[in-house]
Amino acid sequence: MVTRAGAVHAAPDPSEAGGRADDTRLGPAIEAALASFLRARTADAAAIDPAFADATDALVAFVLTGGKRIRPTFAWWGWRGAGGEVGSPEAVAVMRAISALELVQACALIHDDLMDASATRRGRPTVHVDFARMHAGAGWRGMPARFGAASAILLGDLALAWADDMLHAAGLPPAAVRRVAGPWRAMRTEMLGGQYLDVLTQATGDTSTRAALQIDRYKTAAYTVERPLHVGAAIADAHPELVAAYRRFGADIGVAFQLRDDLLGVFGDPKITGKPAGDDLREGKRTLLLAIAVERAEERGRASARDEIDAAIGNPDLDAAGVDRVRDLLTDLGAVQAVEQRIAALTGSALDALSAADIAEPAGSQLAELAIAATRRRS
Questions:
Q1: How would you class 279 by CB atoms within 10 Å of its CB: exposed for 0-12, middle for 13-18, buried for 19 or more?
Q2: Nearest alpha carbon to residue 352 among 206, 238, 219, 245
Q3: Fewer beta carbons within 10 Å, N or C terminal of the chain?
Q4: Rounded to two decimals, what is the model's pTM?
Q5: Is residue 73 a part of any domain in this protein?
Q6: How far apart are the C-alpha atoms of 173 and 278, rounded to whole Å?
Q7: Is the torsion defined by CA of 285, 286, 291, 294 positive or negative?
Q8: Where are the residues of the annotated region Disordered (predicted)?
Q9: In a domain, 269, yes or no
Q10: Where are the alpha helices (H) located in the chain, listed in sequence order?
Q11: What is the spatial distance between Cα 241 and Cα 305, in angstroms, rounded to a whole number?
Q12: pLDDT, tens digit (0-9, with 9 covering 90-100), for 243-264
């Protein structure tokens, strides 16, 4: 765990625990790789100033105390499916390299929470809220909210910078580093492009299904499944046909993953999701779920239903009764069923792409299981 005193107490690096990464203990191996890297970087921060070390402790805590490690898990199986061997000399370096994806994720979440004015993440205060409270509690000058926002921006940027550092310091062979540069570069641009499109549609009020799916494709699918698989495949020097199959699988499962997230954002149990019920509505997220509902309300001449949904989107004061009313409308208009059907269709097409590819076992079976788990989850 991480303390504000600047100390990082963590499991050892995978190379310190037997010298090999293990298919059956991916989560602990990812945690250990992250903790080892972050321990060294926090020491660098302490050399700059203790106050900066305290700030980086908050980033370390954010990374190490939550998350499903989905991205590095997909990357690992992408590598294994392309012929990567657990007992090979580079396996530990691969584990370090793919664990850097969690720092990309940290950047995305910290910035996304700030842009959406989210108060909680994983059942705890978001980074910008935490730093604003620290400012207010200390009685410092200026506005607490501005200090919180500035801190979140800087820590999110630091996470992205450290992700690059971790990838390049992982110990991969030079040829593998060169091969992984393309998908890594594309992933970062796609993630930020999707995030901008999300902000843009909230500002313009674009409720089209086209816009919603484009955001899902680039903000989530590309850096959650598609590119992590591509990263793993590139490290293993996979054949282009396998890379193409991975990308088809990853794009479909990534969008299905986001569609499940959209449903959970409105219908999920806060005790499980870690976010208040209906938070996506208050934040103004223009999801496919809402786009379909608005589209169907217009087609059926139900102007009042359309107006109710439109008024709820982006309303920070939406109460529990308002959330329940929107839930009823989304169900009544068939939007929930339509999204469930889209998730099922995308999962089916993804599994078809997977089954047609020449993927080494046990990676093929593991990726199929991950696809089902990602699209049927409750949090």
A1: buried
A2: 245
A3: N
A4: 0.90
A5: no
A6: 47
A7: positive
A8: 1-23
A9: yes
A10: 26-48, 50-64, 70-81, 91-99, 101-115, 127-138, 144-168, 174-204, 209-215, 227-235, 240-267, 270-273, 279-283, 288-299, 303-312, 320-332, 335-356, 363-376
A11: 47
A12: 999 999 999 999 999 999 999 9
CATH of the domain at 248: 1.10.600.10
Q: Would you state the pLDDT for residue 20? A: 55
CA angle 261, 262, 267 (to 5 degrees): 95
CA atoms within 13 A on the CB side of 131: 25
Number of separate domains in the chain: 1
End-to-end CA separation in angstroms for the chain: 23
CA distance 72 to 55: 25
Structural domain containing residue 252: 173-379
Task: Name residues of the chain where pLDDT drops below 70.
Answer: 1-21
* Contact residues for 146 (Cβ-Cβ < 8 A; gap 6+): none
Whole-angstrom distance, CA of residue 322 vs CA of residue 273:
20
Residue with tokens 């664990």: 99
- The reported pLDDT for the residue numbered 122 is 83
Calpha distance 322→162 (Å, rounded): 42
Residues facing 124 on adjacent strands: 121
Report if residue 303 sits inside a domain.
yes
